[in-house]
Specification:
The structure is a homodimer of 153-residue chains.
Chain A (H helix, E strand, L loop, with lengths): L2 E6 L6 H12 L6 E6 L2 H7 L7 H9 L6 E4 L5 H8 L3 E4 L7 H10 L5 E4 L11 H10 L4 H8 L1
Parallel strand pairs in A: 1-2, 1-4, 2-3, 4-5
Chain lengths: 153, 153
């Protein structure tokens, strides 16, 4: 049984998230186990933007997705610590994730972590296929203020 | 094997959605099948607000959730047509769904639909436990415009 590890922010869930995780799991064959590592709020803030949904809630949502066998928060300072603990056969990189794969392979080798890094290239198109597009759409929509009064009370 | 039907908008997914669907499925016992009906865009617009995510994408995301065996879009004009087709043993009503249950029972009886309506009362608290709270938070957050340029190009 092969263990595949995938990582990501998973801020606002869209079909591309589920598609990527399915494709990642397939890399490990029929009886693969998929473990997902969720980026910490501090990491998202440093590398991307302020996350809308906090890390605890993002973790809970990822655990609800069909391909996911386990999900954990990453560590704040050392991205390799969780890789060591999970010890995956394969690390799946998403089609839109900007890792330098030769560099990653070298960093893993340096730490004696024996894992194969594979980029998932298939991509699922949807009208809102990134958390960022969903955020941008909401920013540009007009809502009746009454709806917020009801849900925020 | 009992069939449980649950309905909803499922605009922006949060842990409460998965929790409700799990609880709904439990109502049908160990080998229950859960069929989820997603509200059409026109229905959401008429009853609630403009949905952020369109019906096709909302359907795709709901299909990715662990408790869901099947998911379908509802019909635009007759909410009972899909109930007839699915012919569920149980209809699960969410803790925050405002159905008039005696009225619903009467409407079902009038149409010779023999199903039990059960309200799920357990509720999962999260900091952002409704699509509306997530939308409101985004509306009030400040983002660097650069992040949108990248994701919208």
């Amino acid at each position: 049984m092969k263990t595949v590890m995938a990582t990501g922010t998973f801020d606002i869930i869209h079909p591309g998230h589920g598609f990527f995780l399915e494709e990642a799991k397939k890399l490990g064959g029929d009886d693969a186990r998929l473990i997902v590592v969720i980026a910490r709020d501090s990491t998202v803030r440093a590398r991307k933007r302020v996350p809308v949904v906090d890390e605890k809630q993002r973790l809970e949502v990822v655990k609800m997705l069909k391909p996911v066998d386990e999900a954990h928060l990453g560590y704040e300072n050392d991205m390799f610590q969780i890789v060591k603990e999970i010890n995956p056969d394969i690390i799946a990189i998403g089609p839109d994730q900007k890792f330098d794969i030769p560099q990653l392979n070298e960093d893993l080798k340096k730490r004696n972590i024996d894992t194969e890094v594979i980029k998932v290239t298939k991509y699922k198109n949807s009208p809102l296929d990134s958390s960022c597009k969903i955020i941008s759409k909401i920013k540009n929509m007009e809502f009746d203020e009454k709806i917020f009064k009801k849900c925020l009370k």
